[in-house]
């Protein structure tokens, strides 16, 4: 028997396609109900104490149950994907229909099952019959564009509440991967290109989700910046560059939101799979940052038993997406034979228990109480998020729409039916169903179907203007041009659908660029409304009078767009990413990899830009973007004054006054950028040091103080694992965007050294 076990372990260790003949331990029959009085249920005790009490009571098989997760949708869905075919998979009967995953608990000890749902914009359903109809937030990119901590928290709290009332206690949210590659099909799920902005906004959303006493993840750890060859590509980057960019974003998100789980990514990092990277999981996350929660794999990202467990993976997720049930029978044998130490298995269980206890998920059972969801109140939350994230990129006076306009022609983008959403595992199906499902758009299988939310901008505009609002689908360009002639204003909707597993060109779908160009030639009073996953090129930009970036605006996106266009709401979004003017401005003008190959081991060199991502790259190379990071216009004007700096204990604070100098109540986003002396060794000329979002009435002023985290003033030293601030003069800029500084000052800082956590 010993020989059999060693052979089995060798197979699992190498990651071969192996399914143990030992029955999956996670599917063992439930034990007796928990006793009524148990010390670990005493909520007066801290989480660590309760977890240790629990752990002492657990059997080996009970610990193993916690570390193995099942996919919770049926085999026909897997076969429809095309990349996981031929499996007659039946999820556990205790799981919820069309959900992401399920992990058995231990009823004997009161440890709850884990019911897992995608994703960061709401409670998602997998492709299939009878999806859940839930409230969808705007895309992660749109929420990042709000630059609004409060809106991010409220949005997270809303979708977390819907998750709880739908019977889920784990939400696979918190996408914080930085936009190194603007063609990445999942950029819409993430928080932009800057580690501070992305980390804080996503962290606030995580904090909101977990306020419902459920678990949120933060993902995808780390450097998961493109979908092409996502299962095999290696993201290659130095420790220093990573600590000052992508890893810093995760660090900020974890400090802000305290997520109970980290989801490791599909890709390799420096040629080691992210989910078996000792460097990422043990060294950086658990040791350096002191992270107490657990690491779960992405669905299909586990490749072994022994290497993965010893490298810090705590829970295999979504079997049978992986080629083997590595953390079921094979892990038990690995522990029995000493290839994985007993202490390591205990630590895996301890971390999962800590996540359940610390969030309150352990003590607060999740009901299935869909009738308690207040969809009307939740619609107001997502509408506010959409309005806060809409960015007015250009305006020559066409917006807000004139009340004297008699005829408004709206063209394209299915604006008479609804607003578009991004595809893949994060897909939320909205109340009212998909109004474009019969139009033959997009793929039928994953990452489709292409889905709209039934909140049409055309109807919302009709309700808010006295003008005659006429819609034309734009399919026939000549007919659209004819319709545009003579209109007081023309509004052209351009869309770009992106989704998980595919990368996208930086252009609009369905020949929209040619449509916009032709319409703008026919009528100079043309407004363009974009619904995109991220940046796109705009070959027609000089010909149009106004451009609005609405992203994927969620359940009430049509209403939000109409309110901004008509001036009910002044636009207040700011770009969380740089819009490049051409491909040759990118660090990698040609996307690495081959989308036609699932096995190519692509090498992606992120040391080309290192920590100089986005606006930092444009600064470093002296490039002029199409639109700068932080850019956004309003219907009012704002003045800045009294820029001052101060230091207390060598911590830098920046204060200034913002005044609404216009005639309309509006919100502004003053941004603070910092630049270091040459001796500091920065890879980029400047960094975002902080910001605030300020709502002001006409003539009103407010004094703002921004504290600059010392890590944003420092260089990371990999040898000593310290953040080092060089002595010298630092420039401080108060700006409207990364390229529009209003005033500057300087401050002299002493040399300072901070530990790996910035303390």
TrEMBL record:
Which superkingdom is the protein from? Bacteria
Q: Boundaries of each Fibronectin type III-like domain copy?
A: 668-738
- Alphabetically ordered keywords of this record: Hydrolase, Signal
List where this protein forms a coiled coil: none
The answer to whether UniProt assigns keyword Signal to this entry is: yes
Record's signal peptide: 1-26
Give the record's family classification.
Answer: Belongs to the glycosyl hydrolase 3 family.
Which PANTHER family does the record cross-reference, listed alphabetically? BETA-GLUCOSIDASE
Instruction: From the Swiss-Prot or TrEMBL record, give the protein name.
Output: Beta-glucosidase
Where does this protein come from, organism-wise? Answer: Asticcacaulis currens
| Source taxonomy | Bacteria, Pseudomonadati, Pseudomonadota, Alphaproteobacteria, Caulobacterales
